[in-house]
Specification:
Length: 59
């Protein structure tokens, strides 16, 4: 039995396109919005946000 592919070669633009499409599908279609919402949450949790090193002064 074949194994699923666990290595994906997606760049930031690909993920942005997928995220945008999911947001539109969630808003426009009559589909399982809970699953789309959960998937968008998992995508969000995998993002690495930039934070400068050293002392950070927000504002």
């Amino acid at each position: 039995m074949p194994k699923p592919n666990t290595k994906f070669e997606l760049d930031v633009e690909d993920l942005d396109l997928i995220e945008t499409a999911l947001h539109k599908a969630k808003r426009d279609q009559d589909i399982d919005k809970r699953r789309i919402h959960d998937l968008l949450g998992r995508l969000h949790n995998q993002k690495v946000f930039f934070r400068p090193r050293g002392t950070y002064v927000g504002g």
